[in-house]
Amino acid sequence: MILSTLLEIATGQGLAAVGAGVAAAGAGIGIGSIGNGALQSIARQPESLGDIRANMILAIAFIEGPALFAIVIGMLIGL
C-alpha cells in the first residue's frame, strides 16, 4: 500500500493530490491562526468584538478563496 502510493507520487501521477493536500493544510493552518488571534484580541478588548469579527471573516475569505482554487487545480491536473 505505502509502496504503491510512493510509486504513484514518484511517477508524477499522485503529485497533484499531494499539492491539493498541501493547499488544504496551509489554508487550515492560516484560518486557525486567524481564529487564535481574533479570540485573543476579543479577550483583551471585549468592546471591539464587532470590528474584530468582521475583519476575521474577511481575512478567512481571502485565505479560503485561493486555497479552493489550488485544490481544484491540483485535482484537475491529476486527471
List the helices and strands and how they pair.
Layout: H1 2-11, H2 15-44, H3 49-78
Helix pairs in contact: 2-3
Rounded mean pLDDT score? 83
Q: Helix segment count?
A: 3
**Alpha-carbon distance between the termini?**
21 Å
Rg over C-alpha atoms, rounded to the nearest angstrom: 18 Å
The main pleated sheet reads as: none
Number of strands: 0
Unreliable segments (pLDDT under 50, ≥5 consecutive)? none
Helix content: over 70%
Beta-strand proportion: under 5%
Instruction: Please identify the structural class as seen in this structure.
Output: mainly alpha
Please provide the ordered H/E string of secondary-structure elements: HHH
Can you walk me through this structure?
The protein has 3 helices and no strands. Helix 2 runs antiparallel to helix 3. The radius of gyration is 18 Å and the shape is elongated. 1% of the residues are buried.
